[in-house]
Specification:
By secondary structure, the protein is mostly helical. Helix content is 48%, strand content 0%. The protein starts with a helix and ends in a 6-residue tail after the last helix.
């Protein structure tokens, strides 16, 4: 059976195109990298300025920052400690993450937050949601 050189070239090009580029978000693949640790889920030291801000930047600020909160963020602004603290006090922030209280689960149109990120946020809230 004689193989046609054009079809072999097409197959080779197809294989090259399908395998040449690969991009992933390292923080989504390895939540521990968000927390700056090498362990799977280290909740030993949880701070607003590192742990919480990094999680929010990756998952929330696109819709819930000063520029977008009124348009597509439902009026919830989360990009400052003061606005996040207000939403925690009103129970809006924790309920949005889980979809409790009839609110839409966040982040919208994506998978729920990884359990490690939820553990970090919940620990921070349990410890008083400090601006640290």
């Amino acid at each position: 059976m004689k193989k046609h050189p054009l079809s072999l070239g097409f197959v080779a090009l197809l294989v090259l195109l399908c395998s040449s580029c690969y991009y992933d978000n390292v923080q989504k693949l390895n939540p521990a990298s968000i927390l700056g640790t090498n362990t799977l889920c280290d909740t030993t030291t949880v701070t607003y300025s590192v742990s919480i801000v990094n999680i929010l930047q990756l998952n929330c600020y696109g819709c819930h920052d000063v520029n977008n909160s009124k348009n597509n963020g439902g009026g919830f602004q989360l990009d400052t400690y003061a606005t996040l603290s207000d939403n925690i006090a009103n129970s809006n922030f924790p309920q949005c993450l889980t979809g409790a209280g009839g609110l839409s689960a966040m982040p919208k149109n994506t998978s729920p937050l990884p359990s490690c990120e939820m553990d970090v946020i919940n620990k921070w809230i349990r410890e008083g949601a400090l601006n640290n």
